[in-house]
């Protein structure tokens, strides 16, 4: 999956681009639409934080391509894709050790390691639904 | 408890779910009475002298018009050779300097070297620019490393300045006047400490957001001297009476004793080794 297609260019707003099947609002899961929900502004950082890791990767890969040629980002992205597949089932927290090593985030600590750590979250998703969603059966 | 309506675990890091709720709440309170974060309303100053760097700070933390902390520590430890004064929102400066200190410790454990001041500045700059000024931290970083004595300032939007003397915070204009008047390149230790003390003192006298005592931190190649407090405030309030109440102050109206009925369920005897 290319990096550009993974970028989220919008915060999901009720009413526009609904996430149900066939583009219709999924009332069963996401509730009714409401015009008021569209008008209240979201936080200025919400979008840039959602896409931060992807934007960093894009920038780094394109710099690498310009310096070393196309083979360098290709090989690295192959390793990323392999490392990303080493995961537990979706409702369990995976350590992502290989991915961290590739990204060098095992030697850095930032807000994403302290605040709202998914390994210490108090609630857990419904296992069956999450696996079905991941497999695309939902 | 299982959340039945989420397909993915929430992303780690900052959570913006309450932004819409807060915006709605602000409209409800006419006159905006949302709780204000604890600001440090500060005077901090730093001077590069012949053998190192002197950092100074006052110790008052305010929450709007109330003094929240009379003895807060604004000079934070980053690494054995780098210290950082923080002005702005107290929690932001604390957490940012803690993260910076952790990152530099990991680096020095990996490489076996003392971190340089430029590294701290770069990490801070990246971190603060990423959050576009939402993290309110005005920091003065001072330290001694293998390349010399350095003093940097980092603003909340990620701006960086390398200067021989500077002051930040709400009392910075008063302090800067003293620094501009008295600074000379290659000062000795005692005149440098006296200059920083006078600068912070001017900030305390002229600014409502700064007050209480003065902390001084001297960083040299030999080590760090963290003098807390360097000068106590002359308006220190001595408690004139004790506020502890003796037993019997509160009259007992009624007393009801309910014995807990415990029954012996299981009894095990373990011999102690008394040899």
UniProtKB/TrEMBL annotation, chain A:
One of the GO biological process terms: proteasome assembly
InterPro entries: Ump1
Coiled coil ranges: none
GO cellular component, one term: nucleus
Signal peptide per UniProt: none
Keywords: Chaperone
A Pfam family of this chain: UMP1
Family note: Belongs to the POMP/UMP1 family.
Full protein name: Proteasome maturation protein
UniProtKB/TrEMBL annotation, chain B:
SUPFAM superfamilies: N-terminal nucleophile aminohydrolases (Ntn hydrolases)
Pfam short name (any one): Proteasome
InterPro entries membership: Ntn_hydrolases_N, Pept_T1A_subB, Proteasome_bsu_C, Proteasome_bsu_CS, Proteasome_sua/b, Proteasome_suB-type
Active-site residues, Swiss-Prot/TrEMBL: 42 (nucleophile)
CDD domains noted in UniProt: proteasome_beta_type_7
Localization, UniProt: Cytoplasm; Nucleus
GO molecular function: threonine-type endopeptidase activity
Substrates-to-products reaction catalysed: Cleavage of peptide bonds with very broad specificity
Domain Proteasome beta subunit C-terminal stretches: 239-269
GO biological process: proteolysis involved in protein catabolic process
Function: Component of the proteasome, a multicatalytic proteinase complex which is characterized by its ability to cleave peptides with Arg, Phe, Tyr, Leu, and Glu adjacent to the leaving group at neutral or slightly basic pH. The proteasome has an ATP-dependent proteolytic activity.
Name used for this protein in its record: Proteasome subunit beta
The organism of origin for this protein: Amphilophus citrinellus
């Amino acid at each position: 999956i290319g990096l550009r297609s993974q970028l989220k260019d919008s915060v999901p707003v009720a009413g526009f681009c609904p996430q149900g099947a066939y583009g219709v609002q999924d009332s069963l899961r996401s509730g009714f639409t409401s015009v008021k929900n569209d008008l209240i502004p979201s936080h200025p950082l919400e979008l840039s934080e959602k896409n931060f890791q992807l934007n960093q990767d894009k920038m780094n890969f394109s710099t690498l391509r310009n310096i070393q040629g196309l083979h360098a980002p290709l090989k690295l992205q192959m390793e990323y894709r392999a490392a990303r597949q080493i995961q537990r089932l979706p409702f369990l927290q995976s350590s992502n050790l290989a991915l961290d090593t590739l990204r060098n985030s095992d030697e850095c600590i930032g807000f994403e390691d302290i605040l709202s750590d998914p390994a210490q979250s108090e609630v857990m998703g419904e296992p069956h639904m999450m696996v079905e969603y991941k497999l695309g059966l939902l | 408890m299982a959340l039945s309506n989420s397909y993915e675990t929430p992303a780690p890091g900052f959570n913006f779910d309450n932004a819409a709720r807060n915006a709605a709440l602000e409209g409800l309170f006419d006159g905006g009475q949302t709780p204000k974060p604890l600001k440090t309303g500060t005077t901090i100053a730093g001077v590069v002298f012949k053998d190192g760097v002197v950092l100074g700070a006052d110790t008052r933390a305010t929450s709007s018009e109330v003094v929240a902390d009379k003895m807060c520590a604004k000079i934070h430890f980053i690494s054995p050779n780098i210290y950082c004064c923080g002005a702005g929102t107290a929690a932001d400066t604390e957490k940012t300097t803690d993260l910076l200190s952790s990152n530099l410790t990991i680096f020095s454990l990996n490489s076996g070297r003392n971190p340089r001041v430029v590294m701290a500045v770069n990490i801070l700059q990246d971190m603060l620019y990423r959050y576009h000024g939402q993290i309110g931290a005005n920091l003065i970083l001072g330290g001694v490393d293998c390349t010399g004595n350095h003093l940097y300032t980092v603003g909340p939007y990620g701006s960086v300045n390398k200067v021989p003397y500077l002051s930040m915070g709400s009392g910075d204009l008063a302090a800067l006047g003293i620094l501009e008047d008295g600074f000379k390149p290659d000062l000795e230790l005692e005149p440098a400490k006296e200059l920083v003390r006078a600068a912070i003192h001017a900030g305390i006298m002229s600014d409502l957001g700064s007050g209480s005592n003065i902390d001084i931190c001297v960083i040299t190649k030999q080590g760090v001297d963290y003098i807390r407090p360097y000068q106590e405030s002359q308006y220190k309030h001595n408690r004139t009476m004790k506020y502890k109440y003796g037993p019997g102050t509160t009259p007992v109206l009624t007393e009801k004793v309910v014995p807990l009925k415990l029954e012996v369920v299981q009894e095990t005897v373990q011999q102690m080794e008394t040899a």
